[in-house]
Amino acid sequence: MFDRSKAATRRTLLVGCAVAMLAPAAAEAQEASAGPCGGLTAEAIGTPRLAITSVEHVAETEETTVPHCILRGTLDQRTGAGGKPFAIGFEMRLPDDWNGRFFHQANGGVDGVVVPAIGKLLGGGTGDNALSHHYAVLSSDAGHDTKAFPEYGLAGGSAFGLDPQARLDYGYQSTPKLYALAIDVLNARYGTPPAYSYMVGCSNGGRHGLVAADRTPDLYDGILAGAPGFNLPKAALKAPGDLQAVARHGLELRSAFSRDDMRLVGDKVRAACDGLDGAEDGIIGAVRQCQATFDPASLACGTGGTDCLSTAQVGALTEMLAGPATSDGRPLYASFLWDTGLGGENWRLWRLESKVKPWDNYPLTTTLGGGSLSMIFTTPPTVVEGTPEALRAFQADFDLDKDAEKLSATTADFPVSAMAFMTPPHADDPELAGFRDAGGKLILFHGVSDPTFSLNDTVAWYEKLDANNGGDAASFARLYPVPGMTHCSGGPATDDISLFFDLVGWVENGKAPATPVASARADNPEVPDGWSRTRTRPLCDWPKVARYDGTGDLEAAASFRCK
After folding, report:
1. What is the pLDDT of residues 67-126, one digit of tens each?
2. Residues identified as active-site
3. Which long-range contacts (CB under 8 A, 24 or more apart) does 388-392 make?
4. What element of type H or E holds 245?
5. Is 302 strand, coil or helix?
6. pLDDT tens-digit profile of 28-68?
7. Average pLDDT, the chain
8. Core-most of 63, 65, 292, 427, by most CB within 10 Å?
9. CB-neighbour burial class of residue 523 (10 A; exposed 0-12, middle 13-18, buried 19+)
């Protein structure tokens, strides 16, 4: 586990002129080593149960021209369930000219892959990354290799859930282990710990961020969490909920709604809600007001038509957006929002249909979600054949009245439930007092049209956080909804957002974010034809809305005010 004395030292170290001394100290440490990466040995680093697989120095890569060392290795190698090998795999990139800061790249999905540790700064359009700004960056697989279980087919990425320790590492235990490793590596490489540490991630990566803020509040000075799936096991219930909802209305998921049908839905919502923020510009800024204004019945015309949906389609879609529930109507997860992005390809990919023939064109909630629900998020895990049809059948037969209880169940072999290892300990009643009192800063962003994790869930969490902090959560945590944006990026939205350096300014200079600006992307195929490709909009922290001033350029953020 992590060394709290090191964490405390990191928070008080290198203030004032000491920060300016980091670069010379790093240079001296480098000169003392044998070659540019010579100090990066397991013995020099000293982390228990560390195995180094490679160390190399590169002058440049496709993503960055910053010369750096690449350290790859594993922690805690062991033999787990089924005789399979397990370890926490990692990659750490260490710039020659270090800025004295650590960037923990929290990855998405079910982890399981060590992606390049360049530190993408999130947002739909930015190609920027932390390594290019001389941050030391760490990436990991969170304790398992998705390629280790080929016999499970499409469910192989989730089969690590058959191992109790792999579940815990994925849920939260790998984070402090990797943080301690990073501190040891930085000390070995540069002769000093970081002045500031950050965790950045979207989706499951955002979940890692909120779990870290709650469980290990003294590790990270700043956390940027996009679309934070902190209730991931509950969110996984939407897949059986969707399949069963369309079946109740005599429909089949992949064919229930054509692309034209869903574009119609987005257009109808836009027509009902576009002007609620004072501007008819294709963006629904007044998110909460829209949910009260839009009437799903307005979509229907009996048996269907060119500008309407059948009664069965309206019923099925309304149930899908209401979220999974028991037979007596008890919600099992949050509801989703009516917004313009429902007509987009990302929403379709997650909830309705993919273009992937080996998946039989089933959506991600069936292929990715089926294995996760069966082998990670329920206890005891259920081994499911990894074919598209078997995964569909498991979800279609999933009893939301009885089987949903398995999210909180334990057994002798699996003594920690999925809800316990996946979610922040205080997800239902957050205060984050430890993180707040340690001076931590948190920025969240979430697409209003996210098909995967509901903005409503994040809003409910944030509003409870605010209440538990006397209405002053904004002093250390901000939530930015992004109208029209789907999962982490995309959709008919100004999704080119860059919040990381707002977080850095808040952490290091005490400068709270003013009003960040989001931009449209020329390479976003879902930007409507009528928009300027340079459109900008202010990002307003919840519950504020970007309202038009009534006179300015509709393409410019300066014409809107957060109110």
Report:
1. 999 999 999 999 999 899 999 999 999 999 999 999 999 999 999 999 999 999 987 666
2. 203, 450, 487
3. 388/154, 388/358, 388/359, 388/360, 388/362, 389/360, 391/154, 391/155, 391/362, 391/366, 391/367, 392/243, 392/362, 392/366
4. helix 238-248
5. coil
6. 444 434 468 978 999 999 999 999 999 999 998 888 889 99
7. 92
8. 427
9. exposed
Q: With the C-alpha atoms ordered 123, 127, 128, 131, is the resulting torsion angle positive or negative? A: positive
The CA distances from residue 199 to 99, 170, 211, in Å, are 16, 16, 11
pTM, entire model: 0.93
DSSP string covering 370-411, please?
A: HHHHHHTSSSS------SHHHHHHHHHT--TTTGGGGGG---
The one-letter amino acid code at 264 reads L
Please name the residue that has the structure tokens 């300027």. Answer: 532
Tens of pLDDT along 361-408? 999 999 989 999 999 999 999 999 999 999 999 999 999 999 999 999
**Integer CA distances (angstroms), 94 to 23, 30, 118, 130, 210, in order:** 13, 11, 10, 11, 26
Structure tokens at 38: 């010579």
DSSP state string for 497-555: ---HHHHHHHHHH-------EEE--TT-TTS-TTS-TT-EEE---TT--EEE-SSS-TT
Number of neighbouring beta carbons within 10 Å of residue 526:
20
Q: What is the pLDDT of residue 64?
A: 87
Q: How far is CA 444 from CA 51, 96, 207, 367, 459, in A?
A: 35, 31, 11, 28, 10
Q: How many residues does the chain have?
A: 563
